[in-house]
């Protein structure tokens, strides 16, 4: 899928769109929350499919498709440049990419159980439980993971930060809306939740 950005004149909204100012090919969009413009207006985040580099040009094997989380510049002098990128797995499960109100963090939400790479086995008495990642919190800049929320049953359909700085984040499964309280730049408490399953 292609993601395109056009110049838009808010004073004259009926003006036909000109050629797109930016076109990003091979964007992975599983939902309308699969790409996000930061609240500061300086960044665009999206997941992009690309080919892995070939270490040997004479290698006959086909290149692998890899997925990258990319941050593009929306500032005038660097518009469209990739400022940062990092490989992510299980892009086909990605349902949300959202910046925090300060644009210093991003949440990635996953809507399906991932492959074996992301699964761990937890012993609960005599029972073996398979868990998978449902949320990841990244720093911006740096794209370092500072918090991971694992779960055995939840599949997140959407996630977003509260619009007030320090207000936490919400994520929704098919049955429950949950609240994660924000304490510090790398500390999230995921124990609080609002059960909406009866609605």
From TrEMBL:
Q: Report which superkingdom the organism of origin falls in.
A: Eukaryota
Output the InterPro entries linked to this UniProt entry: AMBRA1_autophagy
Q: Which SUPFAM superfamilies match?
A: DPP6 N-terminal domain-like (SSF82171)
PANTHER family linked: ACTIVATING MOLECULE IN BECN1-REGULATED AUTOPHAGY PROTEIN 1
Q: What is this protein called?
A: Cleavage/polyadenylation specificity factor A subunit N-terminal domain-containing protein
Give the originating organism.
Answer: Erythranthe guttata
């Amino acid at each position: 899928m292609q993601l395109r950005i056009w110049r838009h004149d808010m004073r004259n909204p009926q003006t036909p769109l000109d050629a797109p100012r930016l076109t990003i090919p091979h964007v992975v969009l599983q939902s309308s929350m699969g790409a996000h413009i930061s609240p500061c207006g300086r960044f665009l985040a999206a997941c992009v499919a690309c080919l892995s580099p070939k270490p040997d040009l004479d290698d006959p094997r086909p290149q692998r498709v890899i997925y990258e989380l990319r941050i593009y510049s929306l500032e005038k002098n660097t518009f469209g440049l990739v400022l940062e990128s990092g490989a992510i797995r299980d892009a086909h499960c990605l349902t949300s990419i959202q910046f925090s109100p300060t644009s210093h963090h991003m949440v990635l939400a996953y809507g399906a159980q991932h492959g074996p790479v992301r699964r761990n086995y937890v012993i609960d008495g005599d029972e073996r439980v398979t868990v998978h990642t449902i949320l990841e919190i990244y720093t911006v800049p740096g794209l370092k993971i500072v918090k991971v929320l694992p779960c055995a049953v939840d599949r997140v359909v959407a996630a977003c930060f509260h619009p007030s700085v320090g207000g936490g984040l919400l994520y929704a499964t098919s049955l429950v809306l949950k609240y994660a309280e924000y304490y510090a730049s790398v500390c999230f408490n995921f124990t609080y939740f609002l059960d909406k399953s009866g609605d």
